[in-house]
Amino acid sequence: MTDPILKIENLAVGFDDVPILENVSFELGRGESLSVIGPNGAGKTVFLRSLLGTVPYNGIVTWAPDARLGYVPQKIDADRHLPVTFRNLLAAKANVLRGERRMENGEWREKINEIVETVGLTEKILNTPVGHLSGGEFQRALIGFALLGKPNVLLLDEPTASIDVAGEEQVYELLHRLQDEYRFTIIVVSHDLSFVYRYATKVLCINRSGLCFGNPEEALTPDVLEQLYGPHKYYHHFHHPK
Question: Model-level pTM?
């Protein structure tokens, strides 16, 4: 692989001498879509946070010099009584970016309008207090929030965890469209193997350690899936060719 956007060598994370992740190594190319899968407690969220540098780790995580990260958390606990909207949050983030000179005066308004149109944030979503948005509306707004700042890498932690099936499909289609239009590199923690087969160019399987990495069609063998999730006779139901 030439000019990877991310290279990880022997990543290991532990807390209070309890190992959470061990022996994770791989390279990811620009514009690829990586799905990170594994059972509950496997260390997927910890892995994502190590990429963001928000947890201590051993090993080497190397981002390309031009990598700009946008992060979409699984959820944010929002007080339903707090009168803060995503319009407020976008304006606040834009002011911070302007202060860091990552955006010029006036450019933030143009960028917000572009994001609103791209992600499909209606006036209702923008002006509703965040604690009153549905799961799908909230996740769409979080993706828009992450896009402000011109990232070329999006990291998402189970973006459809609290969304119904129809909402899941909308989020998946949005991510796929964003990648096609802007050539983002996308790293998604997900439990949904159908999403992996349909949209991921690479899959990383972890269960405390790195069990597999590669093209989903080749890496997700029955043996690997059994190591991840235990014996399961319905694995073939998850297989949806692209």
Answer: 0.87
